[in-house]
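In this section we walk through a basic example: taking a raw amino acid sequence and producing a predicted 3D structure, encoded as discrete structure tokens. The instruction is simple. Fold the sequence below.
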Amino acid sequence: MRKLFIIWCMIPLFAISQTKNVVSTDRYFPKNDKIDEFEKALAAHAQKYHTGDWSWRVYDIMSGPDAGGYMVTEGPNSWDQLDTRGDISPEHKMDFTKNVAPLTIEKGSTMFGTFRADLSTVQLTDFVDKIAINHVFAKPGFASEIENMIMKAKKAWEAGNQSVAVYESSASGPPQYLIVTRYKQGWKERDSSFMKPFKTRYNTANGEDSYDSFTGGLQKYVESSWSELLIYNKELSSK
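The resulting token sequence is shown next.
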């Protein structure tokens, strides 16, 4: 009976616990003549101050408008964890301000995103080294339509055994969905011979000629989109 009472007491704790599905990303761009110094300073900072729940995964941005930059990903955490993190120590702040920031140019960005397990075909923490990110910006008022389109695309991803993680931006500029394709077998997965074309898989999964509706939806509901390739940089990340 005593054990049962303890379990009952713990139920409220389970009820209020939050899902660790929040990821923050920062993008940094080093000065052209300070790249080596920047990498050393960033790695030292990550490995000294970012451990456990606050570990960093650092990616080299290989293509797209941010090519040459670095994407730093922290998390996943819950919003409650972010609430209770407390102030970062003065030493922590000073290390970044003194040793990392002066080596960068003004261009940069910060974003929070929540992982959408319902739209994804892979677990949040099933990371790989090579990824592609497609940034999809919805026209105002059409978020539901975009999500419906992603849900149907998910069927085609599953048919091709693709690992795709979908995130939704949170209070970080124009609303967007980040569709992250994780290449477990490397870039060769991008070759047209690796799997059936997306159009074929989409029509098979959603009905004949359904791909035409998909492209029509892109025209109606998507404000803009752009994509990029990134590679995980183990040497710059938390250890």
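Looking at the output, two observations stand out. Confidence is low (pLDDT under 50) at residues 4-15. The helical segments are 2-16, 35-49, 79-84, 90-100, 143-159, 198-206, 210-221. In the next section we compare this with other chains.
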